[in-house]
Design goal:
Layout: H1 13-34, H2 41-52, E1 56-57, H3 58-65, H4 69-81, E2 85-90, E3 93-101, H5 103-107, H6 109-123, H7 129-145
Antiparallel strand pairs: 1-3, 2-3
Helix pairs in contact: 1-6, 3-4
Length: about 150
């Protein structure tokens, strides 16, 4: 009789990465909330590229954020309701919208980034910089290896 191979999810780097990512996101949501900022980590992820390059298309954001068009549409809608972004028809492509930050959206850049950095710093407590650099290098390679 063939022996069944055990699978220990606690030894699976996939499960460990997913768990760590979920916990980081939950902690970030809590930090934003405790600071009185009505925004989620997912919405913050959409704001990040706009702070660097305002006026990106919805499709560009979907590609960067690795989300479906529907998911990005909903995230942008939530940001729009909060007065953080506006959608403007793309002058070069009437089927597409460009997303622009409002002054309120621009003003959130510093406090949200500060909280995100604090979140990562707390999560990395007790881990030396060399190990973090190796960890990031390994993650980058995993991302490359798993691209479709």
């Amino acid at each position: 009789m063939k022996k069944k191979r055990a699978y220990d999810r606690n030894d699976s780097f996939g499960w460990l990465m997913a768990t760590a990512a979920n916990q980081l996101r939950q902690r970030l949501n809590k930090k934003f909330s405790q600071a009185g900022l009505d925004i989620t980590a997912e919405q913050w992820g959409v704001l990040l590229p706009l702070w660097k390059d305002d006026g990106l298309s919805q499709q560009s954001l979907a590609t960067m954020y690795m989300r479906s068009k529907v998911a990005i549409f909903k995230l942008i809608g939530g940001l729009e309701k909060k007065g953080l972004v506006t959608r403007t028809p793309d002058p070069d492509d009437g089927r597409s919208n460009q997303i622009f930050l409002t002054p309120r959206g621009k003003a959130l850049q510093e406090p949200l980034i500060d909280l995100a950095k604090e979140n990562l710093s707390e999560a990395a407590r007790g881990i030396c910089e060399k190990d973090l650099d190796t960890f990031k290098k390994v993650l980058r390679q995993l991302i490359i290896n798993t691209r479709n």
